[in-house]
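User: I'm preparing a small set of examples for a lab meeting where we compare how different chains pack in three dimensions. I only have the primary sequence for this one, and I'd like the structure in token form so I can line it up with the others. Please keep the answer compact; I'll paste it straight into my notes.
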Amino acid sequence: MAFFGWLPDASILINNDVIRTVAKGNAYYVRGGSIKCDYTINLVPQILWMAELATEPLKRKYVVDEGMEGDIGDPDNDLFGTPVLVGMYRLYMTAYPTQQNENSIEFKVNN
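Assistant: Understood. Below is the structure token output for the 111-residue chain.
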């Protein structure tokens, strides 16, 4: 199971119950594979986040569309930093408030 959402301040994502409560939806995913999140309804810059079970493979890349992608946790990539463990979830967050109102974001296991 994976959840996603957006918040003005992601510091409230401190445990399993909060993650499930504030989620805007369940993400589309294939167990052990990529996860696709539809952030397009978010109309103002906020912190975008995705939480997957910590037992799932680490996601290493994000793809918005052709030409707009990056490595998750890469210090030279300023969109998604290194994920953190929160209870039973691995939490991915944008490093700054943003919005994505045209395309979903896919979190990928491999490059």
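A couple of notes for your slides: The first strand starts at residue 2 and ends at 7. The first helix runs from residue 16 to 22.

User: Perfect, thanks.
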